[in-house]
Amino acid sequence: MLGGGYVIGTWFKNGEISILDRRIAEYESKLKVGSPDEAKTKIDRLEGELAGMNKVLSVTVGKHWDVLSNAEIAALAEKLRPMVQHRVQLMYLNQLGRPLAETIYEAFKGAGWTGVTLTDGGGSQLGIIAGPGPKKAGAIKAAIESSTRLKVTVDKPNSPEIDDLIYLFIGINTG
Questions:
Q1: For residue 25, what are the contacts with CB-CB under 8 A and spacing of at least 6?
Q2: Model pTM greater than 0.70?
Q3: What is the DSSP letter of 83?
Q4: Are 88 and 168 spatial neighbours (Cβ–Cβ below 8 Å)?
Q5: What percent of the chain is modeled with pLDDT above 70?
Q6: 93 contacts 63 by C-beta, under 8 angstroms
Q7: Which stretch of DSSP H or E encloses residue 129?
Q8: What rounded mean pLDDT belongs to the chain?
Q9: Burial code of 109-148, b = ≥16 C-beta within 10 A, e = fewer?
Q10: What secondary structure does DSSP assign to 1-27, as a single string?
Q11: Beta-bridge mates of residue 169
Q12: Pairing relation of β-strands 87-92 and 116-120?
């Protein structure tokens, strides 16, 4: 019986060792490393890079933008309603500009504009930018400035316009 127990125990132990060897080989192939020390170094480096990226992404630059009042939303919608509709890409740099972008979006929707999208991203400009080109972006600038307290800069005033696209970017608030 002792001999049988030894054989079964050895067989079980060898099976467990085989499973562990396969798992180690799998980790090494996925990590493309040759030793546990190399794996630890690689994981530590990746964790450091991730921590650095999270720190960069959590930084918010500028001051909070005040949202449009209900009266400003209604006034802007009135200015936009008779205008020829274009596609508008309404973007905000960071969470400090998102509430303002959302209220401007409400005005476009209130005016019946259907080709307006609201997204984050777009660069790191200062202030509110409309573009490109002077005509369509200039008309949006005039509508916003005549119905709200906001000031808008036309981006690339000497550049050709892009088909029926206008971008409106809520950048860094320095005021």
A1: none
A2: no
A3: S
A4: yes
A5: 78
A6: no
A7: strand 128-131
A8: 81
A9: eebebeebebeeebeebebbbbbbbbebbbbbbebbeebb
A10: -HHHHHHHHHHHHHHHHHHHHHHHHHH
A11: 91, 129
A12: parallel
| Exposure string over 36-45, b if 16+ CB within 10 A, otherwise e | eeebeeeeee
Structure confidence at residue 70 (pLDDT): 97
The first and second tokens of residue 144, run together, are 């916003």
Query: What are the pLDDT digits (tens) for 2-58?
Result: 666 565 666 656 667 777 777 777 776 776 766 777 777 777 677 666 665 555 544
The CA distance from 8 to 146, in Å, is 88
Per-residue confidence (pLDDT) for residue 121, from 0 to 100: 76
Q: According to the model, what pLDDT value does residue 58 have?
A: 46
Alpha carbon 89 to its chain's center: 14
Reference 80, options 110, 103, 50, 59; nearest CA is 110
Token pair 């005039």 is at which residue? 142
Residue (of 95, 116, 85) closest to 172 by Cα position: 95
Give the DSSP H/E element, type plus range, for residue 168: strand 165-170
CA distances from 128 to 112, 137, 153 (A): 22, 12, 6
